[in-house]
Each structure stands twice: as structure tokens, then as C-alpha cells.
Amino acid sequence: MLVIEDEEASRRAIAQGLLEAGCNVVEAADGVAGLELAVSGAVDVVLLDLRLPRLDGEHLLEKLRRTSAVPVLVVSAKRDEDDRIEALNLGADDYLVKPFTIRELLARMRAVLRRVEGEVTTTLRIGDVTIDFASRTVALADARVPLTALEFDVLACLARRRGRLVSREAIDAAIHPRQAMLGPEGGTDGHEAVSNVVDVIVLRLRKKLGHELIQTRRGQGFIIDG
């Protein structure tokens, strides 16, 4: 979860509330740094203030939507209807006016994720591949393809973020949430282990489901674009 807010007290308060709710939080204090983090594929939701130094929220949102479909919840003191409409037209998924409570913020975030990532949908079809999230089964051209639990988790992580770039670290955090909360224990060796594990699983998925399903963006991560 990425919080882009230039006012330190407000940013820290939001981050602390999210951390207490069990979320992993990344912070950015200006628009340029926020945009770099938002397009990395390592965050599931962006909380975006509009009044930012270096790059304002509206322009950040406009640039972000050229390359990413990551859910964006605008949190702003701007109350005018025109401001809300402009942000939504630029690609925001929701708009929350300050001040607000963490409970309301969490409720809005859950609603955005349900709507954007299709959590209420139990099946997803991508070309010839059909994924049934409820039964954790996959079919290729209507023929059942056996996957290991880890293979399915990686595929589900990428499929639910269809059209969005997902970094190796984000995939590893999705399939090993407890380890992600504890943090890396081995520095560079830990990073290499993450890359190796994810790469091996993606290779196995390509062999089973087709080499075109998962695309690699060198130095950035993976994406299912179909």
C-alpha cells in the first residue's frame, strides 16, 4: 500500500493507522517519488493526495494511468464537486475528502479492491486459460491442468492484477505474506532467493499454460496482458 502525501504528520497518521490494521505501507512525500513507486508494480493500492510538491496529484494520476491500472484512492482536502469529477475522470477509483477516519478509509479501500480486482468473481478467462479461484483449478482449452499450490498462488497473483506490472518482490509478498511482514533476513542473498523462486515458478507456468501468458519486463517484473 502506497501513501503519497506531502504533509508529514498526516502521512504518518495514515501510515500508522494502516499498519495497525495489518497493512504493509510504503510512503512518498512528493509526486515524483510517488509516481516512481506507483509504477513499480510493488503496491496494490495507492492513496493519493492532490496537493503535492514536484508533481501535483492530478498530473501524477494522468501519467500513472498511461502505464498502470493500480487502484487509486484520492484522499484530499479539496471538496468541490469539480475536483472530485476531474480526479475520477483522470482514472481515480474513489475520492475521500479530508478529514476522515481510518475505519472509513479501510472500508473504501476494501470496496475499491473488490470492484477493481474482481474479488467477487470466482472465475477468470484469459485467452484459452480459465482460472477458478474458488476451487483453485486451472484449465487450458477446457482441459484441466494440474498446478502445485505455489504455482496457483503465483498465477492468481498475476491474474488478479491483469494488465498491471507486478514485481518479483510483490509476487513473493503475495504468496508468502508472513515473510513479507517480517522482512528480508538475508539482504542481497534474500533478494536473489526471491528472484530465483519466482522465476522458476513462472517458467513452470509457461510450460504448462503457454509461453505467451506471462510476459517478462526485464528489471521490473511480470505481467499478464491478455
Structure description:
The strands form 3 sheets. Strands 2-1-3-4-5 form a 5-stranded parallel sheet, with helices on both faces. A 4-stranded antiparallel sheet has the order 6-7-8-9, with helices on one face. It is elongated, with a radius of gyration of 18 Å. It is of the alpha/beta class and 226 residues long. β1 (2-4), α1 and β2 (26-28) form a beta-alpha-beta unit. The protein folds into 2 domains: 2-117, Rossmann fold (3-Layer(aba) Sandwich), CATH 3.40.50.2300; 123-223, Arc Repressor Mutant, subunit A. The protein is built from 9 helices and 11 strands. α6 packs across α7 and α7 crosses α9.
Helix proportion:
40-55%
Rg for CA atoms: 18 Å
Number of domains: 2
Number of DSSP helices? 9
CATH topology of the largest domain: Rossmann fold
Morphology: elongated
Contiguous uncertain segments of 5+ residues: 177-192
Query: Span between N and C termini?
Result: 25 Å
Overall mean pLDDT: 85
Secondary-structure blueprint:
Elements: E1 2-4, H1 8-20, E2 26-28, H2 31-38, E3 46-48, H3 57-64, E4 72-76, H4 81-90, E5 94-97, H5 102-117, E6 123-126, E7 129-132, E8 137-140, E9 143-145, H6 149-160, H7 168-175, H8 177-182, H9 188-209, E10 215-217, E11 221-223
Parallel strand pairs: 1-2, 1-3, 3-4, 4-5
Antiparallel strand pairs: 6-7, 7-8, 8-9, 10-11
Helix pairs in contact: 2-3, 6-7, 6-9, 7-9
